Amino acid sequence: MGEAYRKRDDATALEWYEKALSRLKDDSDLKQEIAETCYNIGDKLDDEKKYSDVLRYLNRAIELKADYTWAYNLRGIAYRNLKDYPHAISDYEQAILLDPSYATAYNNRGNAYRDLKDYPHAISDYEQAILLDPSDATAYNNRGNAYADLKDYPHAISDYEQAIQLNPSYATAYNNRGIAYANLKDYPHAISDYEQAIQLNPSDATAYSNRAEAYRLQGEYQFALRDFSYSLKLRDNDAWSYGSRGSERLPACLPGF
Description:
The chain has helices at 2-6, 10-23, 28-47, 51-64, 69-81, 85-98, 103-115, 119-132, 137-149, 153-166, 171-183, 187-200, 205-217, 221-234, 239-245. By secondary structure, it is an all-alpha fold. The protein has a domain at 1-66: Alpha Horseshoe (Serine Threonine Protein Phosphatase 5, Tetratricopeptide repeat). The N and C termini lie far apart (65 Å).
């Protein structure tokens, strides 16, 4: 049993643990081992986006260890990815009840509330996450997204700036701040942010599409066509770039098109 666990063969270890538990039903150490192994398997399945399978293993983990804070949080993530937001929120709440200082659970519950367009609750949860962990750039970025959804772009930009200050390599925050600037029709700042996002993550097709649209709105059609084309190379199913590169959005007189 120990050899399988050392090799991180969680599936084999779990099979052995369950067989042992069927004989030693009240062995608390064995229940702990099974719960942790189920969590490890669920975590790997989450990386593989097999969210229904994640639920199966985390249900077992929580069944054996009712105070398993991380398992509630991870199961909440699986429920959210399955768009079952009420169950996701319930699991995040249980994680918070077990550990009121669990900043990640507040942040994740905020994401679920934002999915439901419940922005006041989302912002409140992001604020609590920031209060508990002021160094969490993700919470600032997420609160910025909620403000942007409310079209409160100045507050959104302020939060994205804080996220970037905490994590200067946070490409997503640069892209999001660019979108906020674009919504304020400040295209030079938007383009500058998209450029930084692209520099940090050259494979981000969305940043190319966003920069292209900002160039288009400034009338810089050659640059817009260039970026739309880059976006298409990175993401063949980018319908926005296909549509934007077409004659309905860009002047037909440009050479080569």
